[in-house]
Design brief:
By secondary structure, this protein is an alpha/beta fold. It has two domains: 6-158, Rossmann fold, CATH 3.40.50; 168-345, Dehydroquinate synthase-like, alpha domain. It has helices at 11-20, 33-38, 40-46, 65-77, 92-104, 118-124, 162-179, 181-188, 197-214, 229-239, 248-265, 271-284, 295-303, 332-345; strands at 6-8, 27-32, 52-56, 85-90, 110-115, 129-134, 137-144, 149-152, 313-320, 323-330. The strands form three sheets. The chain has a six-stranded parallel sheet with strand order 1-8-5-4-2-3, sandwiched between helices. The chain has a two-stranded antiparallel sheet with strand order 6-7. The two termini are 38 Å apart.
Length: 346
């Protein structure tokens, strides 16, 4: 079931209806370079009331405390008060960063998200996780808080480059691997050009929201949503500032292969299903080799992962496609081995 604060349809009427029912003193729209160019013109046609635009640079590297300070300063200069609204228009970075900024400005102002990428529509928009990267550690500072509304319209995906669309698709694959075997096989056997993004977005949101509803603060079963992310975030963090940087979803796709391999070596996943997952990822993406000289740095980031307990690396592992467990203890050696396995498949 899709949560009541999320709507998936034509955004025009939904935004107008929401704003007509709420009397905000000021409205701000947070965008990055991409959403400012491709998506803001759509919103401008809808809004018939005064608003301010705050622009930040695009990219994961902007998801930091310096950007927060810049936006907080902008809100203060614009004299935003506690009855103001921040509209986050963009991808996962805008959703996470903008939500965190709103949740902490004057101890909290209302915010809504209009996710404009597949990644933000199927993942960042659901679950109330807000935050920023800190000291090159992914999402290391943040809070749990849902926006007042999330308005999703898959028409906004039309402006995305294929690389960005595929980045978001890794989270779709993950949702199927952890919870829906039939959908995994359906996507595996469907040509990319024939995907119905409206159905895919709805399906992913239903899976994630059902898990989040059971465990809002990630004390138990919600941890299965981290499948692929322990290794994936380690890889993303190391490659974030490189010339050959990886998008979030590209790093998670690699993490899915690595953590599927770890599931196999831990005797929770059979070889046939490992091969299917590996085949799906390598067929969908054009993945790069992970430089062996970077593996130790990746492991160092993983050691500081916020999901770890008592300095033990904790990971969610696949028991079979469609079923995932969590809180498995994993050592550095098998993670190193999983990256070598990934490299051997490229």
């Amino acid at each position: 079931m899709i949560p009541s604060h999320i709507t998936i349809s034509n955004i025009e009427s939904n935004i107008i209806d929401f704003l007509s029912k709420n009397n905000y003193s000021k409205i701000g729209i947070l965008v990055d370079n991409n959403s400012n160019k491709h998506c803001l013109p759509i919103i401008k046609k809808i809004l018939k009331i005064p608003y301010s635009i705050i622009i930040i640079k695009s990219g994961e590297k902007e998801k930091n405390i310096k950007t927060c300070i810049k936006v907080w300063n902008s809100l203060s200069e614009l004299k935003f008060d506690r009855k103001s609204l921040l509209i986050n228009l963009g991808g996962g970075v805008i959703s996470d960063l903008g939500g965190f900024i709103a949740a902490t400005y004057m101890r909290g102002i209302d915010f809504i998200n209009i996710p404009t990428t597949l990644l933000s529509q199927v993942d960042a928009s659901v679950g109330g996780k807000l935050g920023i990267n800190f000291n090159e550690l992914k999402n290391h500072v943040g809070v749990f808080l849902n926006p007042k509304k999330i308005f999703i319209d898959t028409k906004l995906l039309k402006s995305l480059p294929i690389r960005e669309l595929k980045s978001g698709f890794s989270e779709v694959i993950k949702h199927c691997i952890i919870k829906d075997k039939n959908e995994f096989y359906r996507l595996l056997n469907t040509n990319w050009k024939n995907y119905d993004w409206n159905d895919i977005v709805k399906h992913s949101i239903k899976i994630k929201s059902s898990i989040v509803k059971q465990d809002p603060l990630e004390n138990g079963i919600r941890k299965i949503l981290n499948f692929g992310h322990t290794v994936g975030h380690g890889i993303e963090s190391i490659y974030m500032s490189k010339n050959n940087y990886l998008l979030h979803g590209e790093a998670i796709a690699i993490g899915i292969i690595c953590e599927s391999y770890i599931s196999y070596t831990s005797n929770t996943l059979d070889k046939n299903e490992l091969d299917l997952i590996t085949k799906f990822i390598t067929k969908t993406y054009n993945p790069n080799i992970i430089n062996k000289n970077k593996i130790e740095s990746i492991l160092e980031v993983i050691i500081h992962d916020k999901k770890n307990i008592n300095n033990k690396i904790k990971m969610s592992l696949i028991e079979k496609i469609g079923k995932c467990g969590y809180n498995y203890n994993i050592n550095k050696l098998v993670i190193n081995e999983s990256i070598n396995y990934y490299n051997s498949c490229i």
